[in-house]
Design goal:
495 residues; two-stranded antiparallel sheet; mainly alpha; globular
Length: 495
Amino acid sequence: MDILSLFVVLPVLVIIALIFTKGLKQARQIAMVGSIIQLGMAINLLFAYLKEQSINDSIFVFTRDIVWFEEFNIHYNIGVDGISVALILLTSIIVLAGVFISWKTYDLPKEFFVSLLVLATGVYGFFISIDLFTMFLFYEIAVIPMYLLIGIWGSGPKEYSAMKLTLMLMGASALLLVGILGIYFNSNADGGPLTFSILEIAQVNIPFEAQKLFFPLIFIGFAVLGALFPFHTWSPDGHASAPTAVSMLHAGVLMKLGGYGVFRVAMFLLPQGAMEWSWFFIILSATGVIYGAFAAIRQTDLKYINAYSSVSHLGLVLFALLMLNKTAWNGAILQSLSHGFMTALFFALIGMIYTRTNTRDITKLGGLLKVIPFISVIYVIAGLASLGLPGFSGFVAEMNIFVGAFQNEDMFHRVVTIISVSAIVVTAVYILRVVGIMLMGPVKNESYLSLPQATWYETTGVLLLLLPIVGIGVAPLWLSDMILKSLQPFLQGVL
């Protein structure tokens, strides 16, 4: 079996094994072993890709093409470049960390881990697909389990949050499907057969009118999952009601499908549409960057603070993609990775704090640094990374985004760039506000004096997420070089 198909097959085998398990202990052990193997596979893929990249000039490597439906030219067509390899590694780390953070899930543990792995299967399949139909299929497989994960294992108004999330993402999927079919029926503009192959469509001169019509459908269809303003409202409610591991995968991995889909499909296949519509979506994404940051200041619930922070940070990803140059696109991919690790770490820490204090309201917390120092210190580090402190992944990503955006010399691009840069100051305000209220000062509640320290499985999950944040910040060049080499073919249509 090829190296990429294993990323779809292995989670399915783990799911089958989980179905026949009995009890919490066996279920979590199988989920842990399966996730560790997936991480090992992702690391192996990284080294294999770096080796293959040095001798292979193809856009995608480790490709495999199997006909699924010959009548419509639908193929199981897979392959990876440096961008998808990096996102697969991100996914494997967060899935394993999520298993450790969910170690004490007592309510239907078998079903919980099965749903989690179904989501992971869809994500892996999405990142390796280079056929539009196959990509859309895996996209839906990744999105659908969120309804169950929130509706069954969530808290608060979980039914409302799950339904709102599902309806908004299904509406976006409808737009996306129309856009994909629009590309498909224009894929023979140069006289060839109709095809869903991304590489084949990229060689076709799709008519400008078709690009102008279908680009916004594809962009919105994917960008709703990436929290595009004003379609972001499902995200904070979904995060607040979701269990910890689901919030980690939701924000850390699932929302990355939005930016990746915009880049891989909308930008690559419809470059003239991207140039035509970029000004409009730049305004929406820049608004989301600022709105998310200011909304986070007004919140007192830790999950809502992190959720609106995600709206702001993911707005930067879309903003950078719309700048249509190499530096900004490099920053967009780095920001996707950085945000994935940071937001998953935040949600893991918030879950650990909530299980100990039974509250996420920062006004009811205080002095936690004295009683749970390890959790508190990691929260401060995650906060510093989020506000873009040098030495962490957030700084590397945001510098590339803002430098790339400012390379556009016209007044419009530079004004929206300056507005978006100002979000860094706002981010510092809400991060330092939370740290000051929740962690510093006297202990507000005497019962907090006996809070349990972080367990081994919580510590393991947290460190899995912290190490890449520091690693990317300290030594970003190897990752940046891998991404830049993969960007070159995609830039040809917009330069």
